[in-house]
Each structure stands twice: as C-alpha cells, then as structure tokens.
Amino acid sequence: MTVSRALGFTAGAVVGGLSAAAAYGTVSRNSQLFGPSVYCGPSTRKAIALTFDDGPSEGTPDLLDYLDKEGVAATFFECGMHVKRLPHIAGQVAAAGHEIGNHSYSHPRLPFKSHEFIDIEFSEAQRVIQGETGVTPTLLRAPYGFRWLGLRAVQEKLLLLGVMWTVIGNDWRWPEEKISKYVLGHSSPGGIICLHDGRGASVRPEIRNTIAAVKEIVPRLKDLGYRFETVSKLLEG
User: Fold this and answer.
1) Domain limits of the chain?
2) pLDDT tens string 75-126
3) Is residue 115 among the annotated active site residues?
4) Which residue in the list 98, 103, 107, 196 is annotated as catalytic?
5) Distance CA 224, CA 188 (A)
6) Catalytic site residue 53?
7) Which fold has domain 32-236?
8) Are β-strands 227-228 and 192-196 bridged in parallel, bridged antiparallel, or unpaired?
C-alpha cells in the first residue's frame, strides 16, 4: 500500500468514526455527547411518567379534562410558537399542575444547524413559556429526539436537563389500538412514555387517536399498580 493510499484510508476511517459518533450522539437515548440527558427514572418502584410533545394545541383541553378526571400528572414539552398562538391553553396546562418543558420554538430538526440557531430556538421558547404561563422550564426535549452540537451550551445557559424516553407511541401516524398496545407492551417501572398533543408545527392538528390511546393506557397501567408522576418527580425517586 502506498503512503498516499494509507493516508487516504486513515482519513476515511477517522471521518467514518466521527460520523458514527455524531449519529450515536444525535439519536441514542443513552448518549450524553451533546448534553446531559435521561430517558428513564429509577426502576425501584412502580412509577411512570406520561409526556406529551409539540403542544399546546386545540385538542389539549380535551386531554387535560381526561387527565384531571383520572388524577394523572403529566409533563408537557411545549413549542414556543404554539404557546404564543394559544397562551390560554398553555395557561390551562400550568394551572392544572402539570409540568412544562421546553421543546424549542418552531420544532425544527437540529442536526447541522448552527449553535446560534439552536440557542435562539430554545432561548425564545423559554422566554415565551415564562411570559405566558409564569413557569420556568427545567427540562428540555429536542424535536424528534435529534440532538446536536450547541445543545449542551444551551442547556447550561438555561439550566435545562435533556429528556428522552423509554417508549414512544408513534401516535402521529398510528391508530389508537396500535399506540396503546405498543406503549403498554414496552412500559416498565421508571419509564418515560412519549406521546404528542400536537403535530410538529401544524395548526389545529388532529389528536383524537392520541387521546383515545391515553384513555386505554392510563387505566391499564393503574390496574397493574403504576403511579403516574411528572418527569421531575419521577427522577426525584
């Protein structure tokens, strides 16, 4: 092998290794590469966290009514653009005692975005959520669960812990029966369930399948002895 071929091989291996590391850091629920993150709480007791992304939406009040009826506390990772669009519904989430996390302002995919772009997305969402609800989020979930360079600095600046999930219900594309069956089959003590009370940046999204699935998931998990807690409460345990 010539020197030039050897150097080319080495450079290719390095690039490939860096690409693999970036891919792992971006999507793996275990990764701490782009900032401190959790995907579950302790498994020593039968507690579990329901989380909802992409809201608030016009369908959120119906979800809140059901959670209130069942005495379930949840964590809502909200987008700043939707909080600004529907401040009264964001206020209802806070008033009901649910936890509110930062889910960016406009729900973009973060990979390959600049540090400045990522900073603006989460800083503006934090500002809007604080201004409209009086709540200062302490948790962050990256849109689509995709993290990237610059997110760690934002977490340190805004004092936010990253949160992934133990199971995601794919409720933006599955019917209610498939959602509930999958979530129930992958739930475990200390688990964090990811569902959605919005659909990305969409206005007036249809979330009836999510609500119907929640109405199946909650009583079934209660029957199995689970207690529902916010993410922060779950982590305290």
Assistant:
1) 32-236
2) 999 999 999 999 999 999 999 999 999 999 999 999 999 999 999 999 999 9
3) no
4) 196
5) 10
6) yes
7) TIM Barrel (3.20.20)
8) unpaired
